[in-house]
Amino acid sequence: MNIPTVLALPYPAQGHVNPLMTLSQKLIEHGCKVLFVNTDFIHRRVLSSMVEHQDGHDHESLLKLVSIPDGVGPDDDRNDLGKLDETILRTMPATLEKFIEDVHGKGDDRISLIVADVCMAWALDVASKLGIKGAVLSTRSASFFGLMCNIPVLIDDGIIDSNYGLTLTTKKTLRISPSMLEMDTRDFFWLKMGDKINHVKVMDYLLHCIRRLHLTDWWLCNTIDELEPVTLSFIPKILLIGPLLRSDDDTSEATKSMGQFWEKDLSCMSWLNQQPHRSVLYAAFGSFTLFDQNQFNELALGLDFTNRHFLWVVRQDNKMAYPNEFLGSKGKIVDWAPQQKVLSHPSIACFVTHCGWNSIMKGLSNGVPLLCWPYFGDQLHNKTHICDELKVGLGLESDENGLVSRKELKNKVDQLLDDENIISRSLELKEKLRNNLAKGGRAIVPPKIDKLHLAFQPDKLSLGV
Ligand code: UDP
């Protein structure tokens, strides 16, 4: 029997590789082979963090981890996202095309479909040139995806300028659909990337990707309609396929680890087994968040100050000296956790999170209330969604020095864990997300929408259909 081969192309970052890897494993369960194409740099990291299957093959070779260069020079910094994106766009389309031609030349795998991250949607050009079908996956929320899709409209209508800055006529708030919560325009994700990232270059790249989306009818998104009910009505073609979670019992530990940039420290699971039901704060901030020494100290002392058990992920690349007063006697610290497993453990009481979309989906799928501490980009927008729309979490606020203080952390933890409404809403949402995990999921057919347009209202701007 001829097994269809899918080429999966993630953007080179942990929060993008993970959901595409999960989707790849689902495709394999549905009878496909997958060629998972990381950049060489990410491929090396993924292989070195895998305990088993060092050759990068699994499911009897139905999943092959392979790689192509990202074009970045040996002395260049991959954390410089503007430069990285520019280089990817300059070099990777040709490299991907050559890679596919080589695969086809060998004759064993003929690629039937390319599933690219939305942030790699330039690959749709390669797909169409080679006569291969294409699909895209948004690893962020649908409302965020909606905002991205509407950036050209925002520019055309003068709401942002050609450098993506707010203009004199930009209102303070905006709705991208009449039924959605207002967004604070100052929180547009590209304005919250920090000084070190050239947001104009990043946005030029994303805009290029957005302009390729018309080349496919399949816009997959890791969300469900109960989380973002109104999005179905304003993003053409969107197919909601969330939550993208690896099942805890249907795959081996090695398979579940595929795609991780750091080796998971499984010792935290036996530690969690010793803690009482719903007693542990889980604090983890994704793959990109960096704290400075002051904030690191305050976080460490805040965890002590809560006087509760805690599991804290401190990545190697953000390891700092612990403050002298830090006891950590009620805690466990790891470099990288098996996050899905941790969040499904009965001892977990709440999740102190940076609000990365994948972390949110995992927290909510396990009914864990969230304490939101966004770092940058879409995370601010996600915080509003969690706290004001879904009401399944609370936000941590910075003090006059720009720090989340130990006192703020303790107060909000106490407040969150005393709030029966938040806890019961989190459990209700868990049920809804879990229902979508049922075998086969639920098919959601989006309404056909031809055109988005901007409609001015007296005191606010709304983007409606
Ligand atoms: N993650 C993990 N172990 C950790 C911390 C994070 O496996 O200790 C995973 C998490 O489950 C998610 C990804 O890393 O799949 C982080 O993606 P997210 O969108 O939450 O944040 P980002 O890293 O993109 O900021």
Automatic annotation (TrEMBL):
The keyword Transferase applies. Its EC number is 2.4.1.-. It is an enzyme of class 2 (transferase). GO terms for molecular function: UDP-glycosyltransferase activity. CDD domains: GT1_Gtf-like (cd03784). It comes from the Eukaryota. InterPro entries: UDP_glucos_trans, UDP_glycos_trans_CS. Keywords: Glycosyltransferase, Transferase. Transmembrane segments: none annotated. The keyword Transcription regulation does not apply. SUPFAM superfamilies: UDP-Glycosyltransferase/glycogen phosphorylase. PANTHER family: EF-HAND DOMAIN-CONTAINING PROTEIN, GLUCOSYL/GLUCURONOSYL TRANSFERASES. Belongs to the UDP-glycosyltransferase family. This is Glycosyltransferase. It comes from Flemingia macrophylla.
